[in-house]
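Predict structure. Chain length: 187.
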Amino acid sequence: MDNKLTFEEIFKQNERRIHYQIHKMHIRDPHQEFFQEGLVALWNAYETYQPDKGPMATYFNYMIRNRLIDRIRRDTRQNEIHQEAAHEQRTQYTDGNYHRGTEGSRPIVADQPLPLKDSSLWGNLQSQLTDKQWKWVYYVIIQEMPYKTIAEQENTTVDAVKNWGREVKKKLKDPHLRGLLSLEDYD
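Prediction complete.
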């Protein structure tokens, strides 16, 4: 006579064990996906249980918990892959080279190089800026130095350097200054 319980009996006795593990791991399971994983783990544990290796309840807990952890890892990895793909697609779409304004965004025309060699433009710009604002233009735009390096060199904070840049950007939006500098050609 075989005293082995059927899976239906095991399930009835251990269904709460699956819910307990889900609750203990703080898993939200509105679509019962984790419960299904736990059910499969319970089935696998039922099929592979060896009485001489330890208590059945301990083995069930171990199998269910590890199966749920595997599912969380798999979902997390899948989510990261989707996020990376979406980020890559957004990056390729926008490419970061857009003017943004009240009329919407429009691409920067790549054929027009910035006038880095136009000394009269830089001279005119420098005459319209404070010393600190000019330092920001010179170090950030012309020399392409990082903020931290500029802050160390000028014996100030990174936030101060960023503030110089905000002031420059504010001035460069002024239509009168743009006209003086003939920047309309570079829009």
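Summary: The helical segments are 7-24, 33-48, 56-94, 119-128, 131-142, 147-153, 158-172, 175-181.
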